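I'd like us to work through together how a protein chain folds, taking it slowly. We need material for that, and I hope you will provide a protein of your own picking. Go ahead whenever you are ready, and we will take it from there:
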Amino acid sequence: KCNLCDPERGSKKGKSFLEAALNFSAKMKTQIQVTSRERVKKAKLYQATKRKVSNFRVRTIGNKRKRKNT
């Protein structure tokens, strides 16, 4: 058997390696969740500003057309 198959064997390096791997995977999982939340927030802000800009453009173009016609 190897140290990973039997973590209690020998100098117990397998046990420390497995614990480190579990900690690393937990850390990476939380980082992925945090970045996905940040991406969602940024996307929502981007869409909101995009809507504001498009609404502003529509209003200004409409006003200019009205001025030209009168």
Notes: The mean pLDDT is 76. The CA atoms of residues 24 and 64 lie 59 Å apart. DSSP finds one helix and no strands in the chain.
